[in-house]
């Protein structure tokens, strides 16, 4: 006689919700998420830059706020998002031109390595703002 | 006589726990997983396992199979989190003592492991998967240069099991999308030097439910039990569609 487990118990980990999610799927998913984040950022950016309309003093105050420590950290997140979106975008362009389709995982990780190097460089460059007295 | 009368003894053998998805629309039972202990022998495949359960445990288990040698594409299943053909997957290769067997995800379940493949076949029909010629056919064989034949080597291996179609997030969200398998076959006829219907074929795949729905997610490539690179074919069709729109052939 067989024993039974009902699907309602298994819902969270059922094989009907595939778990075979590999590099390509994650790359696509994060590309979408970072894309949305960048759209949000562009709108925010327009509002911030628009502060110049209220006189130079207002713009200087905004700039002072943006160089404060929490905003430097947010900026670093932005660097990571832009790096991911642009580098994975390059990968997608390679595929559209017909290059590297059979080596998509290798290309993904190679570009992510490049992204990490650039990010470390950006983090070091901004450390002057983060660790100032 | 009950079917369990001839059941082999489990003594001294490797035993695996097998969980199989069950759903029977003729009863009021909810979909659930049934569990069995099954003795494992050396070269046993997932299909052998299903036969064991059918013969010794539950005669009402429904699953598809035909050729038993990975050429008919009937037995594609979702086993331990991967798309596999039941007939060519040996249990020892799963490297697990617990084996979960589900029908192909994201397709309507008819009964147990049998899913409704109609949407898949409908897409396959839409791409006109046969040679279309304008000129008179040759009297004997339709000769082809070996070099030209080599161009479609990757695509002819497809056995239409539906694993890629079931794994593709674009197929889940767009019921009209042709899907990886149909597009691979489309590419097979597009690169065929004997086929003379490239104009009409381009119209079928050059639209929002055709190649442009593909976002190079590569789930199909991961899923394919025949190691076909579907994305390679789809990207080839994309380039062909672009070339046509810029006034090429």
Model description:
Chain A has 133 residues and is mainly alpha-helical. Chain A has a single domain, classed as Fumarate reductase/succinate dehydrogenase, transmembrane subunit (3 helical TM bundles of succinate and fumarate reductases). Chain A has helices spanning 7-10, 23-49, 56-66, 69-97, 104-130, and one strand at 3-6. The longest helix of chain A is centred in the middle third of the chain and has 29 residues, at 69-97. The model of chain A is unreliable at 8-14 (pLDDT under 50). Chain B is α+β, with helices and mostly antiparallel strands. Chain B folds into 2 domains: 14-115, Ubiquitin-like (UB roll); 118-245, Fumarate Reductase Iron-sulfur Protein, Chain B, domain 2 (Orthogonal Bundle), CATH 1.10.1060.10. Helices cover 33% and strands 14% of the residues of chain B. Chain B is built from 11 helices and 7 strands. Chain B has helices at 46-56, 91-94, 118-126, 146-150, 153-156, 163-167, 169-173, 180-190, 198-205, 219-223, 230-245, and strands at 14-22, 32-40, 76-79, 82-85, 98-102, 109-111, 114-115. A 5-stranded mixed β-sheet of chain B has the order 2-1-5-3-4. Chain B has a two-stranded antiparallel ribbon with strand order 6-7. The N and C termini of chain B lie far apart (69 Å). The interface between A and B is medium-sized, with 30 and 36 residues.
């Amino acid at each position: 006689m067989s024993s039974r487990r009902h699907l309602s118990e298994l819902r969270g980990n059922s094989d009907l919700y595939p778990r075979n999610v590999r590099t390509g799927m994650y790359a696509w998913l994060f590309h979408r998420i970072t894309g949305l984040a960048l759209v949000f950022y562009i709108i925010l950016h327009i509002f911030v830059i628009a502060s110049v309309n209220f006189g130079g003093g207002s713009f200087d105050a905004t700039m002072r706020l943006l160089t404060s420590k929490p905003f430097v950290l947010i900026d670093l997140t932005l660097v990571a998002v832009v790096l991911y979106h642009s580098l994975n975008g390059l990968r997608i362009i390679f595929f559209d031109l017909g290059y590297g389709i059979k080596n998509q995982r290798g290309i993904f990780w190679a570009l992510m390595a490049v992204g990490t190097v650039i990010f470390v460089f950006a983090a070091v460059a901004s450390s002057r703002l983060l660790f100032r007295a | 006589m009950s079917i369990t009368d001839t059941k082999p003894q489990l003594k001294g053998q490797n035993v695996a726990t097998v969980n199989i998805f069950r759903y029977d629309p003729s009863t009021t039972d909810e979909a659930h997983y049934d569990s069995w202990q099954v003795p494992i022998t050396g070269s046993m495949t997932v299909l052998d396992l299903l036969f064991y359960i059918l013969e010794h445990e539950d005669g009402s288990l429904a699953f598809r199979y035909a050729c038993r040698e990975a050429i008919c594409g009937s037995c594609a299943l979702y086993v331990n989190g991967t798309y596999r053909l039941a007939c060519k997957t040996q249990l020892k290769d799963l490297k697990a003592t617990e084996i979960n067997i589900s029908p192909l995800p994201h397709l309507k379940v008819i009964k147990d492991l049998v899913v409704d493949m109609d949407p898949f076949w409908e897409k396959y029909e839409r791409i006109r998967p046969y040679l279309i010629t304008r000129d008179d056919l040759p009297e004997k064989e339709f000769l082809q240069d070996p070099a030209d034949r080599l161009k479609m080597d990757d695509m002819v291996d497809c056995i239409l099991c539906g694993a890629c179609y079931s794994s593709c997030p674009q197929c889940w969200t767009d019921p009209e999308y042709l899907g990886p398998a149909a597009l691979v076959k489309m590419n097979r006829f597009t690169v065929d030097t004997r086929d003379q219907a490239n104009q009409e074929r381009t119209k079928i795949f050059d639209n929002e439910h055709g190649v442009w729905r593909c976002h190079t997610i590569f789930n199909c490539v991961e899923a394919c039990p025949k190691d076909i690179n579907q994305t390679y074919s789809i990207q080839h069709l994309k380039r062909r569609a672009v070339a046509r729109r810029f006034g090429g052939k």
